[in-house]
Design a protein that fits this description.
The complex is a heterodimer of chains A (about 350) and B (about 325). Chain A is built from 16 helices and ten strands. Chain A is an alpha/beta fold and about 350 residues long. The two termini of chain A are about 30 Å apart. The longest helix of chain B has 27 residues. The chains are: A alpha/beta (about 350), B mainly alpha (about 325). At the A-B interface, helix 6, helix 7 and helix 10 of A face helix 8, helix 9 and helix 10 of B.
Chain lengths: ~350, ~325
Amino acid sequence: MPADHQPEHLDSTTASRGTGATAVDPDAGPGATATVDVSAARAALRDVPHQPGAPKPDPIVVVDGIRRTFGGLTAVDVAHVELQRGVITGLIGPNGAGKTTFFNLLTGFDRPDEGEWSFNGKSLKGVPAYRVARRGMVRTFQLTKVLSKLTVIENMRVGATGQKGESLLRAMFAPFWRSQEAGNTARADALLERFLLIGKREDFAGSLSGGQRKLLEMARALMADPELVMLDEPMAGVNPALKQSLLGHVKSLRDEGRSVLFVEHDMDMVRDISDWVIVMAQGQVIAEGPPESVMGDQRVIDAYLGSHHDQDLDPETEERILAEAEAELTRQRGDDDSSSPTGTSFTDPVTTEGEHRA
Amino acid sequence: MDWHAIFSQALQQGLGPVAAVYCLAAIGLNVHFGYTGLLNFGQAGFMAVGGYAVSSFVATWGLSFWLGSLVGLLAAGLLALALGVPTLRLRADYLAIVTIAAAEIIRQTIGSVTLLKYFGGQDGLQGFNDSFANLNPFTGRIGIPGVVSWRPYDFWTLLVCWALCALACLVVWALMRSPWGRVLKGIREDEDAVRSLGKNVYAYKMQSLMIGGLIGGLAGIMSALQHSAINPSFFATDTTFFAYTVLLVGGAARVLGPVAGTIIFWFLISFLDLFFGQATAGTNPLIPDFIMNSNQASLMRFIFMGLALMLLMVYRPQGIFGDRRELALDAR
């Protein structure tokens, strides 16, 4: 709720465009809008049990026994998970939980050691990344990937799928693709308008700020008219004002009938916009449910937030934790062999604890 | 100091057939490196394949020159395919390693004693260009009277070669303004981003490698014709790097970059050669003998060219035609 209205106080330009959710462009998603009833999809989630791997009434993605190891480290080991169509699903978990690897596996950017997964009922096993995108599952990246030396509008045009002018033989003769190009440009302009980037149309994408790049990446993904938008940390490195407008944009994706899966660390955002939350820790799905229920789940609190997440640190505790960390570091320096495979000493106590309880 | 002779001969080189051959080679590299970001360090290999296909077809097997040219282009395309299949899925630097190695392998193989009866070993082949030379309509020296002139055969080759450059530029222009060219530029910037938008990056890189390779093969054919002879030393590694210099001087990812680059490069390099040659010649040279003798003078052009290239990279890294703003983004 607060996300919808805050932009008006924080950022007048955002407000003037409407809060994203309300200013849905009908041209932007003709494919997706018609087929899915958003409120029904959300309502259907009410009866889904709050446990890992729970079956959904209308899943768009189904994952079975997907496993990816890097040497001795099992990065992802998900037994079963389903994503409901037409809702925003949040994927959370501590650093190194395997969220991004999971993303890469689903979108074909990485190959699992074993496992099956399907999109709209069709298996995606062994399907290359570009085909996954063509089927309607488009992702963005944690480290934003804009095409720096292309202008903003050119970035957008690259996003359109099925372009006739992208085949070598037709490319040389403009009449083959000119009208399609004009159509794509109009669609791109509408999206730029909606994502507040129209003023930057002719600028090089490399000259945009971090937040504008996130916006551009999201808008560009929409050029492909995806059914499922996968956002890898859409809020990372974005200032608070822009964050609110981004939130509105993510919601607007759902409201025009697309499904959204996003990875995020910002708990407020997760609570605010997700209809359903999946929690990963150490490569496994440890909990599922609506945000309120998941946030209250003891396993999640321990695994993800640490057991002191809702208490302010009093000076004594703070000193004690610092001293413990210090001691841990000294111990690790003294004995390199004993250093744990999972990473830094700070996440260690937390994740091991989560493992015990899960 | 005969300034008129220096300028006239430098211009003769700058617009001459050698410059035009390097222009073609650089246009091919522009497709690879400038537009797609593929580091091809073996353009000389593509040129060798094209040039040797023509010359051996005629001189060794007595077949048609035109068929040889066609096969030369085809072979350059196949070389691109062979190099691309294993390397284009890997990171960009692997292509650089493979192409530079492949170019050397080709050069050594062609010059080897074992294949002497086909390719003429280190002496190479001659007498394969009759069909081309017979089409030459020119007689007597041709050029702008009092400014610059060429021998008729040279003028004929430079005319054909520049015409091919114009054609290649036209093709590059038509391709790079299209959505196809946009995908290539996208790949240059970030191939994962392009892949995530549903483009088959591998296929695009392969197409780019083959198109640039074909243009390189064409450059090799023209190089053989221009010399009326061919031997492995034409296709040493420095050929590739001269072509890169030409491209960088003109400005990468600009259609006319290679054209401007090659004219400037060959004008300057012969200008410096002629200047230092004259400055150290005679009984009372401009540059005294204890500073530099005429043997040393011939090397000065490379020293100055290297210096010029360094200064260019520092003060105008985008080349003559490049867009400074575009390059400034790299600093981020």
